[in-house]
Write a structure and sequence with these properties.
Blueprint lengths: L5 E5 L20 H13 L4 E4 L7 E2 L2 E2 L10 H9 L6 E7 L5 H14 L4 E6 L4 H4 L10 H19 L7 E2 L3 E2 L7 E4 L4 E4 L9 E4 L4 H10 L2 E2 L6 H14 L11 E2 L2 E2 L1 E3 L3 H15 L2 H12 L24 E2 L7 H15 L3 H8 L5 E3 L1 H13 L5 E4 L9 H13 L12 H5 L4
Helix pairs in contact: 2-3, 3-5, 9-11, 12-13
Length: about 425
């Protein structure tokens, strides 16, 4: 039997993915935009709708970074509103485990799961960033080694609250029978909790997006879905094998964790047209200002006088604090610069062309038939269980995919004709 493809929709607007200059690009904060993409995903039979999170506006050279997200309503608030205008689509929100409390977040997620009749999902993320921490009462941040320990304990406490109500707690429509609610008591390194949950809730689906060894191990122990960045066939197969192999040590089966890389796409009537569309999108995503901002992030200094259509700077990167706040560090600046210089010299690339090359490209490019085949090949080759699609337009960037690629996946017998269940766990083939 051929494996079934799982698909999810990522609301665009993060980093420079969205092409804001395109006249078809609309608001990334208006509720109508969220509704459009969610309903398109549900029309296409997707498993879930995914929202990223930003706890602080990023800064570049001491100013709010105007080439990034302008701001966005809080994720669970948006998803709760979407629960009223969708029927089957899963609703996944990124919520930070470093700057929240287990009981409070468990309650909010149980509320979303209750209001949506079992469609909630939590993308568990951590932050080791003092800049972001300044927005919170406690300030500061956790060392990298501690953030996953806190997340692990956080999730354990949250699950204790979710599991504290009996499966059949009610006596009549309005009353809870005696003994149906168990008190939660926890004393650990990060949390000391004694209390009771105010709402019965199933377990929301747990999503994890870390790629470090700690992140992979956390996913193998705890996650139902891992949101990976390994979109190529060979990288995907290596990641898939590594993570699925880890499951056995926790008594889990391979089907109990779905691996869904982020993926972009470019469609065309012919392969040549699709490739031209992909190239045009990349040029729009990485304009001159964006190219310089990426360069300054690596070089750690102001390069406003540098020509983005010229060669890379001759000066070496500055290993100091840098000029960007709120982004995940890219790594060893000197090593990255050396790698970039070698690639630019080998390929004869300008600064902007190099940034386009190293910051990713469309995962799937071709006619609808070619893209459907590529997606199917990745899943059947165990490079992924499916993909979280990130369109470059807000909010209509998924329309063509649903209208042209989804029917072809159905013809191949690898994607549902319609929903057969009502909960997100049922869509993903997961048990309670």
């Amino acid at each position: 039997m051929r494996k079934q493809v799982h698909l999810a929709a990522h609301f665009p607007g993060v980093n420079n993915t969205t092409v804001w200059a395109d006249p078809r690009s609309l608001s990334q904060i208006a509720f109508s935009s969220f509704v459009h993409l969610a309903r398109t995903a549900e029309r296409g039979g997707f498993d879930f709708f995914f929202l990223a999170e930003g706890l602080r506006l990023r800064e570049h050279k001491g100013l709010i970074h105007d080439l990034d997200v302008a701001g966005r309503p809080e994720a669970l608030t948006v998803l709760s509103a979407l629960a009223a205008v969708t029927d089957r689509l899963g609703l996944a929100g990124t919520v930070n485990a470093t700057f929240n409390e287990p009981y409070e977040l468990a309650r909010r997620l149980a509320s979303l799961d209750h209001l949506s009749a079992g469609r909630a999902a939590w993308n568990v993320v951590t932050t080791s960033d003092a800049f972001t921490g300044e927005n919170f009462r406690r300030g500061g941040y956790l060392d990298r080694a501690d953030r996953y320990r806190r997340a692990e304990e956080f999730l354990r406490v949250a699950r204790a609250f979710w599991d504290s109500w009996a499966p059949d707690p009610f006596q009549g429509p309005d009353f809870v029978r005696q003994g149906a609610i168990r008190q939660v008591t926890h004393e650990g390194t990060h949390f000391g909790v004694t209390g009771t949950a105010t709402l019965p809730g199933g377990r929301p689906v747990i999503i994890q997006a870390g790629d470090s060894d700690e992140g992979r191990e956390f996913a193998a122990r705890n996650a139902d879905v891992i949101f990976s960045r390994h979109g190529t066939l060979e990288d995907g197969k290596r990641f898939y094998t590594d993570v699925k192999t880890r499951l056995a040590r926790y008594g889990r089966k391979p089907y109990e964790l779905k691996i869904m890389p982020a993926a972009t796409f470019a469609l065309g009537g012919t392969e040549e047209e699709a490739r031209a569309n992909a190239a045009a999108v990349r040029l729009q995503q990485v304009g001159p200002q964006t190219a310089l901002a990426f360069l300054e992030q690596v070089w750690g200094r102001d390069l406003s006088g540098h020509d983005p259509d010229g060669p890379l700077p001759e000066t070496d990167p500055d290993d100091g604090e840098g000029v960007t706040q709120g982004r995940v560090p890219l790594g060893d600046r000197q090593a990255i610069a050396a790698k970039w210089r070698a690639l630019a010299e080998e390929r004869g690339l300008t600064t902007r062309e190099l940034v386009i090359e190293v910051t990713g490209r469309q995962t799937f490019v071709g006619t609808p038939e070619q893209v459907a085949r590529q997606i199917d090949e990745h899943v059947q080759a165990d490079a992924a269980d499916g993909f979280i699609l990130v369109p470059h337009l807000t909010p209509g960037g998924l329309d063509d995919f649903v209208d042209t690629v989804v029917p072809l996946l159905r013809e191949r017998g690898v994607f549902r004709e319609s929903y057969t269940g009502s909960t997100l766990r049922e869509h993903l083939g997961l048990t309670r």
